Amino acid sequence: MNRFSQLWYQMFGGKRSRHLSATRVIALVFLGLILTGTVLLMLPAAARSGESCGFLPALFTATSATCVTGLTFFDTWSQFSGFGQIVIISLIQIGGLGFMSVATLVVFLLRRKVGLKERLVMAQALSLNDMDGVVRLQKWVIFGSLSIEGCGALILTLRFLPEYGFWQALKWGVFHSISAFCNAGFDIFGSITPGASLMEFQSDPVVLLTLGSLVVLGGLGFLVWQDVVTNIRFRKFSVYTRLVLVMTGTLLVLGTVAFALTEWNNPNSIGHLNWADKLLNCFFQSVTTRTAGFFSFDQAGMTDAGKAIGIALMLVGGSSGSTAGGAKTVTVLVLVLFLMARARGKSCVCVFRRTVPMAQVLDAMTILAIMVGLSFFGAVFISITSPVGFLDAFYESASALATVGISAGATGVLSIPAQILIIIFMYFGRVGILTISLGFLMGDKAEERFRYAHTNLLIG
Q: Is the pTM of this model over 0.70?
């Protein structure tokens, strides 16, 4: 029995499962999926040319797909055959919704009872504080996700049908709906213009708004869906749901305005478009830089200010318990509220007539500091080892760690050490930040057995 089979057995009926923590299950199964995908993508049958792409490119692509990132060495359609594309979209679906969603679907179909161990892994995979209602939420995740992806696929298929025929329209509709909802950013439009992502459709509101809506819905978080559908009215939503919706809307508006200010007259990005298309592309850029990885105009041609804004949005990312990466919207909002409170001389953070515990403020501060610190380190490492400027390296590093998948052109010229670092960042961004977050939420705090005397320092 191989390692992956052992892990599966331990999760769904093995007596040894008590030796494996839920976070280790998540990390190891993601690793197993990546390695399985690597082997499949290395097969000659996965390549359009009939020749294997090699181990490192296959590992890079499998990691990017499983961790729903979107960074690639080469154009997906040009490099991979239909079989290879099926492998990639399968990895995206499993990695985006979480392997537990797929495993739970199997359990439901087999009519097996969901045990305590499975409930614990579900809760951690969905970033929940406890196991209360986790099976019900998992059902929401499965059927809600498939329904939204199905609607997106239908709209896109109908849009592409008149021009490209039924089979091509169906393939594009299904593939890109899953890729967008899972916030992966992979595309197979290479048959039109290899490596151009959505640039062919930069004046097409149906394509951009449909994909943008799928990205936003995927990035809101499964718990938010349930709350919105169940309670309907904003004032009845939980504090968390209200914060997610407010922060998401604010970021979309501010991002659109910021990109309009920095790119409006830039001929290398959107300067050649009419005003309506400029607004459309600025909005889509605001959506995609937070987590998706699609692009509708050349990222390398952006101004330095535009790239800096993109990096900031990447590091924020989507919301907890979603298909998105990043430090997460509420994490950043909690820190903003904390800074506002401290600037006004207050010692606690209050929002919607509720007080946020200081422990959660410190947790949010730690997560964001880790994200920013690692991204900066990655940028320095890439710029040293590869022929890439620091800002483009920072763009690449933040994109990998936040599992965004958008690039300013650096991916294709990365050195082997830089490629390995990006692979590690993509894996850590999908699994590691989740593990750190859950360690704060569910792990036992280190016991402080004694305290030293206080000292006063000069701060500020």
A: yes
